[in-house]
Write a structure and sequence with these properties.
Layout: H1 4-13, H2 21-30, H3 37-50, H4 54-70, H5 80-88, H6 91-98, H7 101-116
Helix pairs in contact: 3-4, 3-7
C-alpha cells in the first residue's frame, strides 16, 4: 500500500539509500536492518558465481557491479539487453561469448534468487 515516493521517504528515513527496495520492505515488515547493495552483493558473490561457467560468471559479476552502483532496477528483465550491450558492445557479441539467448536469460533471472537467499 506504499507509493513510490513514500518508499523513497522511508528509504531516506532509515538511512537505506544504498539498499534496495527489498530491504526497505523487509524493514517495514520485520524491523530488520537493511543491507546495503554492496554488502548483499559481497556476501553472495562467490556463491552465485561458483554456480556458473567462467564466461557466465564474468557477465553476472558485471551485473552485480551494476546492481551495486545503480540499484535494483538493473535486475529487471528489460535491462538485460542494455547490460549485454554495455559489457560486450552488442547482443550478437554477447551471445558469441555466452551461448544461447535462453541460457543467458535463465542465468540472469536465476542468479537473483541467490542474491536474496537467507533473508
Amino acid at each position: 500500500g506504499f507509493a513510490g515516493e513514500q518508499l523513497a521517504q522511508i528509504r531516506r528515513m532509515i538511512d537505506a539509500e544504498g539498499s534496495d527496495l527489498f530491504d526497505v520492505l523487509r524493514y517495514i515488515a520485520f524491523t530488520k536492518a537493511p543491507l546495503k547493495r554492496a554488502e548483499r552483493a559481497a556476501a553472495r558473490r562467490s556463491d552465485i558465481l561458483s554456480r556458473h561457467d567462467p564466461r557466465q560468471a564474468a557477465f553476472l559479476d558485471f551485473v552485480l557491479a551494476q546492481y551495486v552502483a545503480e540499484g535494483e532496477e538493473e535486475l529487471q528483465p528489460e535491462k538485460l539487453p542494455d547490460l549485454l550491450e554495455l559489457k560486450y558492445g552488442s547482443s550478437a557479441d554477447a551471445l558469441r561469448q555466452l551461448g544461447r539467448a535462453e541460457d543467458v536469460r535463465r542465468s540472469f533471472r536465476g542468479f537473483q534468487k541467490g542474491l536474496y537467499e537467507r533473508d
